[in-house]
Amino acid sequence: MKQASGLSASQLAELEAQLRAELGGDELMVELHLVRVLEALRHGWITVSDALSVETKTP
How far apart are alpha carbons 49 and 39 in whole angstroms? Predict the structure, then answer.
């Protein structure tokens, strides 16, 4: 699934890091959101730019 996303290894690492920061390190939620983002990319529902523009929220 990661290969079909069109993201490079560095883009995948950046996305995962952003998700971990946003979700507080909850690995199950990180994986769930990562799968959702990759599916959205595969279907063309979002662009790579959209996927990498995840904004972290500060409590």
Answer: 15
Tokens of 31: 């994986």
CA dihedral for 1, 47, 20, 12, sign (positive or negative): positive
Contact (Cβ atoms closer than 8 angstroms) between residue 20 and residue 32: no
DSSP 8-state symbol, 58: P
| One-letter identity of residue 19 | L
pLDDT at position 2 is: 67
Distance CA 55, CA 25 (A): 15
The model's pTM is 0.76
Q: What does the pLDDT look like over 12-37, one tens digit per residue?
A: 999 999 899 988 878 999 999 999 99
